[in-house]
Design goal:
Chain A: It is a multi-pass membrane protein. The complex is a heterodimer of chains A (about 350) and B (about 350). Chain A has about 350 residues and is mainly alpha-helical. Chain A has a single domain, classed as ABC transporter involved in vitamin B12 uptake, BtuC (Orthogonal Bundle). Chain A contains 17 helices and six strands. In chain A, the strands form three sheets. Chain A has a two-stranded antiparallel ribbon with strand order 1-2. A two-stranded antiparallel ribbon of chain A has the order 3-6. In chain B, a hairpin with a 2-residue loop joins strand 2 (about 175-180) and strand 3. In chain B, helix 2 (about 20-50) packs parallel to helix 13 (about 290-310), helix 3 (about 55-80) runs parallel beside helix 8 (about 185-205) and helix 13 (about 290-310) packs antiparallel against helix 14 (about 315-340). In chain B, the strands form two sheets. In chain B, strands 1-4 form a two-stranded antiparallel ribbon. In chain B, strands 2-3 form a two-stranded antiparallel ribbon. Chain B contains 14 helices and four strands. Chain B has about 350 residues and is mostly helical. Chain B has helices spanning about 5-15, 20-50, 55-80, 90-105, 110-135, 140-155, 165-175, 185-205, 205-215, 220-225, 230-255, 265-275, 290-310, 315-339, and strands spanning about 160-165, 175-180, 185, 255-260. Chain B has a single domain, classed as Orthogonal Bundle (ABC transporter involved in vitamin B12 uptake, BtuC), CATH 1.10.3470. Helix content of chain B is about 75%, strand content about 5%. At the A-B interface, helix 7, helix 13, helix 15 and helix 16 of A face helix 6, helix 12 and helix 14 of B.
Chain lengths: ~350, ~350
């Protein structure tokens, strides 16, 4: 039991389970999944589908945070990506054609990749702090998206484009597959190649990793590019969901939610060790929390209050001080103390 | 044995070539000087292009329109000087405003409500300070949680905008003290200017101010020097929260209402103004007066955009670009100083 509670994913999973239990108690139909025309419907499926954009952004954010960075620009990139793709499709004259849609998506994601690499350039080559380097694009990005859509909300009617957000394959929504592909690709990249180890090395101690011969500049560059790419894909899903590019509101506050998901999932903002699985759970927690608030009949505007409580509680549980208090009461073991010192030095 | 002398030699060589004191001073002030040069250049260009730009009227309303942002930027400067960040201020502006409006609507007298608005900000600031200092949560996350808290509380108070008709609060905004020659100030502007003046004094001439710079420079050294690190750090967040409360009061008076959706992204405006004003985000270097200039530059960009007549989203692009220029500039300065 003790080893179970000490597992790094214990508290996040416990929080997720608690949320599901609360929902089921207040509305027993929460867990039910109905099959309609071979397509699955239900609250759980909705959560899986709606969490896709946040999942993509969260994965990118995890890798960025692992290098001691942060990417505030993802919300703006989502707006730009949707604006580029929809403007192209709307002006092409053949919105139903698959080629047009594919080109539009390619353009949107391509521009996002370039923007991500731009962030990486500022951070790794110029050496600007990540928070400020990405703040530049966060401030300017929405203006750029407005420029692309000429201040209007660009709308399209395109079957293939709608399919991305509302289509079904083998009974499950398409966005779910997209997020699974992203998670698996990222997991393979960081756990089956040396990239993950290099990433953690850069995050734990940039100077030491440089002395060890790791080209941190290239790694940081890749990570921000990857984050931009995923944000671009999230922007496509988001704009497909509403069939419109809204430069003002697309991806609003998504960077905050993504950072929260990463932190709730147990990855420290101080960089180094990271957990993709934790982020996946963190994203599901945030999405379920949003759904819970709606189900409980609380006005959705109060969601931030619940988020604040969850963040404070999870962060407190992970803070060294509280952990120390807990372990003291439980009779400290040398192993626990050693992990404590590692944590402190990583934070410093 | 052999390693020690080789290590010492460069030090000994460097000692006589140490940069003179005035040069160090200058390099610390250089970002602020650059900002004021840009500000001046903007005024001159505006005057040259539009004719009636550099007028007492425009400058007076520049202060009036940005009084709340000045106060926010001043509070943010304290936090950033210690190497922290406070993302909650925009939400605190919204919360304190609607909280005050609600209290006034239920019949509380203004002499209680006005302090309550400010203190509600201080309390949220104190919460962040405790989370950061005692529980060692990163400022970014702690203030993010406070941002959600304040925003959520604002929604709990009311989802609708509440008009403020109380004479004491509207007096803050409506009264125009004419100074002659078209110059005028409102009580809100006086509050903002006082905040700047007091902060200049606190940061430059008090022990507390020196501690703030010391923590931002190197926390460990500050602690070893026996400075009150814990107390100072919590105080810094309380100050920022208090400033956000004051800004909430000013903003409520400015808009004549409390509304839970105001102040979205205001914290970013404040941070951008502070950075444009030459304060370095890692802490330890910067001046309050620079933040004031930063806000002025910000306000002038907005005014210029309306004068030119292009669409308002250009403001964001220009501010983002300017931020970039400043950060790169600071980066170059820091790199040169290290060499």
């Amino acid at each position: 039991m003790r080893t179970l509670t000490r597992h790094r994913l214990f508290w996040p999973i416990a929080a997720l389970v608690a949320l599901v239990v609360i929902n089921t108690l207040s509305r027993p139909s929460f867990l039910s999944v109905t099959v309609n025309d071979g397509e699955l419907y239900g609250s759980l499926i909705d959560i899986l589908r709606n969490s896709a954009p946040l999942m993509l952004v969260g994965i990118g954010m995890t890798l960025v945070i692992a290098t001691r960075g942060i990417d505030l620009s993802v919300g703006a990139i989502i707006a730009i990506s949707g604006a580029v793709a929809l403007s192209y499709i709307a002006n092409s004259g053949s919105p139903e054609s698959l080629v047009t849609v594919a080109t539009g998506i390619g353009l949107g994601i391509g521009v996002s990749l370039v923007l991500g690499l731009w962030n990486g350039f500022l951070v790794s080559v110029i050496g600007i702090q990540p928070i400020i380097a990405t703040l530049v694009l966060m401030l300017a990005g929405r203006g750029i998206a407005m420029l692309i859509t000429q201040g209007q909300i660009t709308t399209i009617t395109s079957g293939p484009y709608d399919f991305i957000a509302s289509g079904y394959v083998f009974g499950l929504p398409v966005p779910f597959y997209i997020s699974v592909v992203a998670v698996v690709a990222a997991a393979l990249l960081v756990r089956r190649t040396a990239f993950g180890v290099l990433l953690e090395a850069v995050g734990i101690n940039p100077a030491a990793s440089r002395l060890a011969g790791i080209k941190s500049r290239g790694i940081i560059w890749i990570v921000y590019g990857f984050s931009g790419l995923l944000a671009g894909a999230a922007g496509i899903i988001y704009s497909s969901n509403i069939s419109a590019a809204d430069a003002n509101n697309a991806g609003l506050n998504v960077e905050v939610d993504a950072i929260l998901a990463v932190v709730i999932g147990g990855t420290s903002l101080a960089g180094g060790k990271f957990m993709l699985s934790g982020t996946v759970i963190g994203v599901l927690i945030i999405q379920t929390l949003t759904a819970t608030v709606t189900f409980l009949g609380v006005p959705p505007a109060v969601t931030p209050l619940f988020k604040a409580i969850v963040v404070i509680v999870v962060c407190l549980l992970q803070s060294p001080k509280v952990r120390q208090l807990l372990t003291k009461r439980r009779k400290p073991t040398p192993r626990a103390e050693r992990t404590e010192t590692v944590k402190v030095s990583a934070a410093a | 044995m052999t390693a020690a002398p080789t290590l010492e030699r460069p030090l000994a060589q460097r000692a006589p070539r140490r940069t003179p004191r005035w040069q160090l001073r200058l390099s610390a002030w250089l970002p602020v000087l650059t900002t004021s040069a840009i500000l001046l250049a903007m005024f001159i260009t505006g005057q040259a292009v539009f004719g009636n730009f550099f007028t007492s009227r425009l400058i007076s309303s520049l202060f009036l329109d940005n009084a709340y942002l000045i106060v926010l930027a001043v509070g943010m400067t304290y936090v950033i000087l210690t190497g922290g960040i406070d993302l909650s201020v925009g939400a605190v502006v919204a919360f304190s405003g609607i909280f005050g409006a609600q209290l006034l609507q239920t019949g509380w007298p203004a002499f209680i409500v006005i302090p309550a608005i400010v203190v509600s900000g201080s309390l949220i600031g104190a919460l962040i300070g405790v989370l950061v200092q005692v529980f060692e949560i990163q400022p970014f996350i702690a203030s993010l949680a406070a941002m959600f808290l304040a925003r959520g509380l604002a929604y709990v108070v009311s989802l609708q905008s509440i008009a403020i008709t109380d004479p004491a609060v509207t007096w803050l905004e409506r009264t125009r003290f004419q100074l002659g020659g078209g110059w005028f100030v409102t009580p809100t502007v006086i509050i903002a200017v006082l905040t700047v003046a007091v902060s200049v004094w606190v940061l430059q001439y008090t022990r507390f101010g020196r501690s703030v710079y010391a923590i931002g420079g190197n926390e460990q050294s500050a602690r070893l020097m026996g400075l009150q690190v814990a107390r100072t750090r919590i105080a810094v967040y309380v100050i920022s929260g208090t400033c956000a409360g004051i800004a909430g009061l000013i903003f409520a008076a400015y808009t004549g209402s409390g509304y839970s959706l105001t102040g979205l992204g205001m914290e970013l405006d404040a941070i951008a103004a502070v950075v444009i004003g030459g304060t370095i985000l890692t802490g330890g270097s910067g001046y309050v007066i620079g933040s004031l200039f930063g806000v002025m530059v910000y306000g002038l960009i907005e005014i210029s955009i309306t004068y030119i007549g292009v669409d308002s989203w250009w403001t964001k692009i220009v501010v983002g670009g300017l931020l970039l220029v400043f950060v790169v500039l600071q980066r170059l300065l820091v790199a040169r100083r290290k060499r």
